[in-house]
Amino acid sequence: MIYVTPQQITFTDQLLLKSGAALSPVTVVYETYGKLNADKSNAILILHAFTGDAHAAFYHEGASKPGWWDDMIGPGKAFDTDKYFMICSNVLGSCKGTTGPSSIDLKTQKPFALHFPLITIQDMVALQKKLIDHLGIRKLLSVAGGSMGGMQAITWAVMYPDMVHSSIVIAACHGHTAQQIAFHEVGRQAVMADPDWQGGDYFGKALPGRGLAVARMIGHITYMSWISMEQKFGRKLQDKEKLGYDFSKDFEVESYLQYRGQSFVERFDANSYIYLTKAMDYFDLSEGKKLSEVFKGVTADLLVISFTSDWLYPSSQSQAMVRALKANDVDVSYLEIKTDYGHDAFLVEFDDQTRMISNYLTKVVRERVSRI
Amino acid sequence: MIYVTPQQITFTDQLLLKSGAALSPVTVVYETYGKLNADKSNAILILHAFTGDAHAAFYHEGASKPGWWDDMIGPGKAFDTDKYFMICSNVLGSCKGTTGPSSIDLKTQKPFALHFPLITIQDMVALQKKLIDHLGIRKLLSVAGGSMGGMQAITWAVMYPDMVHSSIVIAACHGHTAQQIAFHEVGRQAVMADPDWQGGDYFGKALPGRGLAVARMIGHITYMSWISMEQKFGRKLQDKEKLGYDFSKDFEVESYLQYRGQSFVERFDANSYIYLTKAMDYFDLSEGKKLSEVFKGVTADLLVISFTSDWLYPSSQSQAMVRALKANDVDVSYLEIKTDYGHDAFLVEFDDQTRMISNYLTKVVRERVSRI
Lengths: 372, 372
Hints:
2 copies of one chain form a homodimer. Chain A contains 10 helices and 14 strands. The first copy, chain A, has 2 domains: 7-175 and 285-369, Alpha/Beta hydrolase fold, catalytic domain (Rossmann fold, 3-Layer(aba) Sandwich), CATH 3.40.50; 180-279, Rna Polymerase Sigma Factor, Chain: A (Orthogonal Bundle), CATH 1.10.1740. In chain A, the strands form 4 sheets. In chain A, strands 1-4-8-5-11-12-13-14 form an 8-stranded mixed beta sheet, with helices on both faces. The first copy, chain A, has helices spanning 121-134, 148-159, 178-193, 209-223, 226-232, 252-267, 270-282, 291-294, 315-326, 350-369, and strands spanning 7-11, 15-16, 22-23, 26-33, 43-47, 73-74, 79-80, 85-89, 104-105, 110-111, 142-146, 166-170, 301-307, 332-337. The longest helix of chain A is centred in the last third of the chain and has 20 residues, at 350-369. By secondary structure, chain A is an alpha/beta fold. Chain A is globular. In chain A, helix 4 packs across helix 6 (252-267). Chains A and B meet through helix 3, helix 4, helix 5, helix 6 and helix 7 of A and helix 3, helix 4, helix 5, helix 6 and helix 7 of B.
């Protein structure tokens, strides 16, 4: 077991947000794995998904489970910590250490709740840039993430072309579609329909747990595929020999969803839920322009990965990015991994991702920094 | 404009349910269109979907809109009322006139609410059979319906083979999958999470409207396709020139879903919502047996229709039925209609359905009853 201790840094200068608002101070929680080399050319920033955190790999002291992408990060793994210096920070707006709506507003000495400014994927990336500057790294060997992490990865390539040699965009998109917005909006409505929501000001009182659980249940369905749900649950009954003909839990899939909803309430904040879903819904790199226009300044090498059964962020969105990048002569590799796991595949399908990413990083080192 | 008046019949003998419970009296609301011929051989029963009702065609006195499938039923239409005698009844468990959980329990003189017995698709069909018997019809020329209506249509062919010459099964399945159960379970949890739910006993008090609206919003997403949502809404803003950077409605798709959720609360009962979704979740014609075994007794001619972009009841489920019917040498026609409208297509794509059904019924008349 390799242990890791979270670190944090507080920036006291203003973080200017895309909305026009500004935020200060801003604290960022992050972890690092492996060693930064002398010329600081082996650093890779890992970007986590919606409900993730800075703990991407290794073990916290006393913990029984490692970080969320430990299968991908470590000695000899896809992100080989014998070669690379890995960084993962918790995103702006989350509830896992970095400043977010559950942080204390210095003006009121109470949690921000809905007084926290609305944030965007671009704001998350802007804060990550501050962290990278703080670490003295001038140019990242790579940035990489799945889902909301992939949105950040492509945004890094657009916003800070001089600071990234490469970007790995997994199961993501260049902008949310109506259906993606719709699923999030239903989740937000479920949270806000909970009487314990109280306009977001539930701190120190009952949590809006039932609404948040419903929101998470919806999410879970979209993260799995039709097939993976059928393989895992089918019509299997929950602790029963036959149908109950009442409204108690009949099917395993019902109790599974309720369990996942409940456990989510214990680990995630309802305000962060609505802020981060809104940040994804606001995400739209094109903003009325052609995507090929948006990618004009991209100088990074790109690796785009999607999954055949991911219907939440379907391959067609990744392919649209690939086309628009190619139109700008960006060096882009694309892999569609055949899998039944749906959107969750980026947290499950390690073999194909490892082979692809490991070789890809070797290529980026060779072509972009010669050696590390 | 052709007008129609709903009729009703109350059966005082017991309706034995699949659960083992019994129900009496049971009232059925129904409408008819066209004329029953002398030998009663031209009758077709229309089976409505989840939130539908007996008003399938023509106009109620003073109404500005016709019945829900008026584009398909009428003189010269797919279900040609110059030829056929059409019947549509409201299903058991609904809130549109037929006995359901919002009906008065004679024992308590209060609405049943959760004291209503759980019902199944088979129970709906058993009640419809009582109505057909009551109308003196020995054998239906056809039964036809989409979605939950399609589940009833295939069930008719299995339960009462001697009473149906043909069955038209549209956008349906032979049993609910884990994903289909999952979406319904989230909807039920949303309803039950509403403090106004009060264990279903909300009659005469505030309605559990916020929960029911959230449940309906989820449903709406599943009824549309990724593409149809993109074409209808995309990222269009609602009455705004730019993003609001607050939690008011930014996108058209958000206000559309909220509007549909709200209007549903005004027209549908929360208890019926949970009873009918549960009935669909219980639906599983195979019940552990091979589907080809289940279809052994089917003597009806079958027409199965599915839609390419229907991801809620995907074509693969219709195709599984077609294969199992063919294994029994059932005369089955199958059409997959290419459309972007998703599951809602059965309420939208009239041209292809009309052509197919019109010709199909002519064939059934020729082969099964010679003339009508």
